[in-house]
Amino acid sequence: MSDPIADLRAAIGDPALMLETPEETGAYTTDWTKKFNGATPMVLRPRTTADVSRMLAACNELGIKVVPQGGNTGVVGGSTPRGGEVVLSLSRLNTIADYDPASATVVVGAGVVLAAVHEFVAPLEMEFPVDLGARGQCQIGGMLATNAGGNRVLRYGLMREQVRGLEVVLADGTVISNLNRLRKDNSGLDLKQLFVGSEGILGVITQAVLQVRPCPPARRTAMLAMTDRAALPALLAEVRARLPGLSSLEVLPDDVCQYVSDQVPGASMPFTERFPIYALVEEETEAGAAGHDGFVERLSGLFESGLVADAVVAESEAQSAGLWHVREATGEAIVAAGYSHKFDITVPQGEIPEFLDEMEALAATLPGIKPLLFGHLGDGNVHANFVQTPEIADKPFLAEGPALAKAVYGATRARHGSVSAEHGIGTLKRDYLGYSKSPEEISLMRRFKGLLDPNGILNPGVMLD
Ligand SMILES: Cc1cc2nc3c(=O)[nH]c(=O)nc-3n(C[C@H](O)[C@H](O)[C@H](O)COP(=O)(O)OP(=O)(O)OC[C@H]3O[C@@H](n4cnc5c(N)ncnc54)[C@H](O)[C@@H]3O)c2cc1C
Predict the structure, then answer these.
(1) Ligand 1 contacts CB of residue 159 (under 6 A)
(2) Are 89 and 44 within 8 A, CB to CB?
């Protein structure tokens, strides 16, 4: 009887490109959240685009299914094997090269970690503006495949807005390479954007041309304390009007801050008094004392309007990092707590207070579940986490998932929101795609999938069933 994995081994030849023992493959089979795991017979570790092409052509020929994997920090169950697929790790495609000052672009391998891009451009006094908590592990290919957002979407947009050129390998091994640096290119369909956010179901990203930008002279951070969460939309409008360099606006309710402070060392709140809700604000300003004083002056107007009860302005980069630490430690604190049902949704910014009320009312009907609701207020993006408390056991809590998802996504749909703001669909949200996309849209997605991957080898079960 034929053994497709033995045939694949023979087709690839070089043992340095394959891992097969459970000791070697183990790290590739569980994701960051520890919620998604499965077995794999082999991890493929290409070094070049040509390797990826050869590997996919062989898998396609042999009918072997493939899970592309970057840093494995995706949180929707798209990067780990589910049914014995081979894992294609892009980690070795980790070259950063060809910085071009005229276009301010850089060519980056899919396996380059986000922090390495930041470090590469910093000495050039340039920056790559996308930043998120997983920066030390998530890779450019994975971030493009999920169209990741992060903390500065408000000012710079998602990954989609940062990419100028892209190289992709299709399921049959065909290389589609368009690594151009052009700001303007209306020569036909913008094919690269089809692959951004496609979560590895249409092709494997191998290289990208990224737009970088001059570093702003300074970034200022403040934590604003509010007494009334119904005033969040008014705060957003006011902050946007007053801070021309606004780059982040995050919202953190008091119970989330307390939870994070309890779980993560050093993530403490800067206020002596407690307030119901806080907003973390970041603005790009001029350098030096003038930049600082201008920031403080613009913020002081928020007190006059009655929207803010207290504020702490970071006086140094260390203090700014301390304020951000509370926001960024939310993920770690939630994982440390045990199992949680996580929802990453968008609703219109003006409806966030009512949506938070609805989520709390929903949690109140589920004994033993603690809601932790926070997110990127400026983008209308709520991270709604329903966390297991010690009073309830794993199994009943796990079983609550589908009912909870229907309730959360039902409330999201009623507000014309999206079931995925920035994390993607993966396997976790696949059955709920119809809450945000029409049957006609889903049918068109299937047609693209059928066209580009007729044998269905790429990331089966992700996004579409
Ligand atoms: C602490 C933490 C904070 C986070 N914060 C944010 C945030 O603020 N904003 C946000 O948007 N996300 C956030 N995320 C999740 C985010 O999706 C990932 O961090 C990142 O975008 C995924 O990159 P990765 O390299 O880890 O991809 P992986 O997890 O390895 O893969 C993600 C998906 O992309 C596919 N894929 C991976 N590489 C490729 C490739 N080269 N070609 C084709 N498909 C590929 C995989 O098959 C999978 O479906 C956070 C995650 C963590 C753990």
Answers:
(1) no
(2) yes
